[in-house]
Amino acid sequence: MKRKRRRTLSDGGRRLSSEREGTRRGRVPVLISACLIGLPTRFDGGGRLRAELLESLAGEWLVPVCPEQLGGLPTPRAAQDIFPGGPGAGSPAPADAPGSAGGEEVLDGSARVVNRDGVDVTEAFVRGARSVAELAERLGARRAYLAARSPSCAAASYGVGARLSGVAAAALARSGVEVIDVE
Length: 183
Ligand code: SF4
Prior knowledge:
Layout: E1 8-11, E2 14-17, H1 18-22, E3 29-33, H2 51-56, E4 61-65, H3 67-70, E5 80-84, H4 103-108, E6 111-115, H5 122-139, E7 143-147, H6 167-174, E8 178-182
Parallel strand pairs: 3-4, 3-7, 7-8
Antiparallel strand pairs: 1-2, 5-6
The structure holds iron/sulfur cluster.
């Protein structure tokens, strides 16, 4: 008889079975940027519904996530961009183009996220990215459809040259989750 793979996660002393938590009737959850299913999570309070994508994913167990909201940022909120220089480096220099660094550098502490009001929101971005990566781990998700060009969700479509990843996309990729960019 085929032996089932069983993995357990520890949560504050409580033992969770990822086999039980992570699958429903054999389906594996798939993460998706909340705005892509039309939820009003974007910085401007709008959504970014991608009906064709949802049709193509019919039958999948979709788990919507918004890393910026999970990090504690309000909606609506000022638009944000990633700049070189670690947290607390102050306002971006005039020579710093928005998007001249990406999520990888933010996770490594060599870049920061600053909103259009000049407020450093790096901590919230990192908190949200880690929450999403932890959620993927707890649920056993191995794939994520993420909104393109976002400083959080972009999977290699953010910033100068549109080649960088957002902070949450970078955290998920580091956890071994396949990240798929959705325009
Ligand atoms: S792109 Fe990501 S962070 Fe931005 S609203 Fe959509 S889900 Fe939230």
